[in-house]
Amino acid sequence: MARVYNFSPGPATLPEEVLKEAQTQLADYKGSGMSILESSHRGKEYSAVHEEARSNIAELLNLTEDYAVLFMSGGASTQFALAPMNLMGEGGRADYVDSGSWSTKAIKEARKIGEVHLAADVKDASPARMPKPEELTLDPGAAYLHLTSNETIAGTQWKTFPDTGEVPIVADMSSDICSRTFDVNPFGLIYAGAQKNLGPAGVTIVVIRRDLAERAAGHLPTLFQYRTFVEKDSLANTPPVFPIYIVSLVTRWLLDKGGIAGIEQQNRDKAAKLYAAIDGSDFYRGTAAADSRSDMNVTFRLAEEELEKTFIEEAARQGMKGLKGHRSVGGVRASIYNAFPVEGVDALVDFMKEFEKKNG
Ligand code: PMP
């Protein structure tokens, strides 16, 4: 069976090696006579998987003991609420950057919990972009500053994170976690659904500074408190064992490739090839401002927008799937996370040239 080039924004393509390994181990996990899907989450087989996934993420992100790695459920969307519930404090307020659809959603949830101050609002900017540091108005009394490191729909990405002094940054890194190196120290909380860069849907990766996990009011439901996950090592209840197992394999695959430093240059090169193809022709037009372009989600339009449907259909016929832009914005989007192969990017660039020749 031939695998297609899957440009889907998430759930997204996984390393083929990882899928094959999971397949080999599926019915009988390491001679235990049962699948990891059937194993107790407190048994020795799963405990080793859980610990490997946790320590691989800590190693990839170069975390000190000040941070805990948690495995939660409910996707990044649940974190939109849990972050303010745990961190805003009674009568507190937080700074938020509105940079597009995903931050807007995070803001909507935070407003249900407490006071939100907009540190910057570029959600309607055209071309789409992230704010410049000098555009931010930061409230020194804010409990934290929330930002979306990569806007999956708009195709924009923070290139340098803002200096917030003592105020911790809370980041939705759903679509670029572990895709590039960065200094974790200014961050108090990082969350991401696994289904783009780290594994399948069903587990949310949360990295929290341990002292911040203590901020939550004790009256919050037990499983809504980060504290519980820190204290019980994400085993207060049954964790999503299979997604975490796949995360352990994907993170091992990443470490084998030299960790984030190893994959970062490849990610940049993949994106640069596509942006060069877009910029090199009037037939295509990038939708994000050059200084905010995402290395993960490359968004573009065709000069003749009526041709986009044909472009996407024809690409799919040639084994390049998932290129349709988000329904809220249309256009074309190539999502090229860590596991997306370089050859797939080359194939798309060739296809773009051919398509232009035929239709330009
Ligand atoms: N934030 C960002 C940046 C996303 O890309 C997505 C999903 N595409 C979400 C949040 C929502 O994640 P989930 O479906 O895991 O709740």
UniProtKB/TrEMBL annotation:
Q: Which Gene3D superfamilies match?
A: Aspartate Aminotransferase, domain 1, Type I PLP-dependent aspartate aminotransferase-like (Major domain)
Q: Superkingdom of this entry's organism?
A: Bacteria
Ligand binding (pyridoxal 5'-phosphate): A76, S77, W102, T152, D172, Q195, N237, T238
For this protein, the parts annotated as crossing the membrane are none
Start and end residues of each Aminotransferase class V domain? 4-348
Name the UniProt key words of this record, in alphabetical order: Amino-acid biosynthesis, Aminotransferase, Cytoplasm, Pyridoxal phosphate, Pyridoxine biosynthesis, Serine biosynthesis, Transferase
Pfam families found in the cross-reference section? Aminotran_5 (PF00266)
Residues carrying N6-(pyridoxal phosphate)lysine: K196
Q: Does the keyword Nucleus apply?
A: no
Instruction: Specify the protein name.
Output: Phosphoserine aminotransferase
